[in-house]
Amino acid sequence: MKTVISLLFLLLPLMQSCGFVYERHLTGNYYLIAVDTKEDMDVCYHQQNDDDAPYTGITGASVYAVGYDNIDIPYATQKGIQVTNTPDPVTEPTADQAMGLLLAVSRRISELDRRLRVGEVKVGLLENLGHSLYGGTIGNIGMGRIGQALARRAVVAGMKIVYCNRHRVAETIEDKYKAVYLSLDELLRVSDVVSVNAPYTTETYH
Asked: In 3-state terms, the chain is what percent helix, strand and coil (to 5)?
């Protein structure tokens, strides 16, 4: 049975040496895998330049992220290649990154680290202060998996949660985070910090 896995860019040369191949038609990057035998590999390499040939070797593409807008879905459908994504594994790490960035910016952690390394930090009682997240309001644009994961962290940090979303979330979720549903304009007006957790679509494109 052929194996379908996600291919990390930096592992491409190693995986190629082990017999894995890629197909550039689906994406400008490298995502495809799926060979068990030398015969399959020969078929895959041959068919990379033959758009009309059926794909007997490549069986699927797995994106190691939520978004799949960089995959040519109509082309994959035409060739009978199944495309999947991996939404759950990136939820908590993404929320960690967002919370880390909020802390780094509000408390000037990265800025002062860089200045300290080059001897530009001014020593003084009020010279290097940042802003506290505690008691502030975070506006979540998007309250799906990542938005809710970030809300959990913000609640622990003592923040108030407001959000806008395509659809209002269930009352149980609002109660869990004491989250208040607002329009985008209202959210931007009352928030101290804003996190954009919306999917990339034509409607959300800046």
From this structure: 40, 15, 50
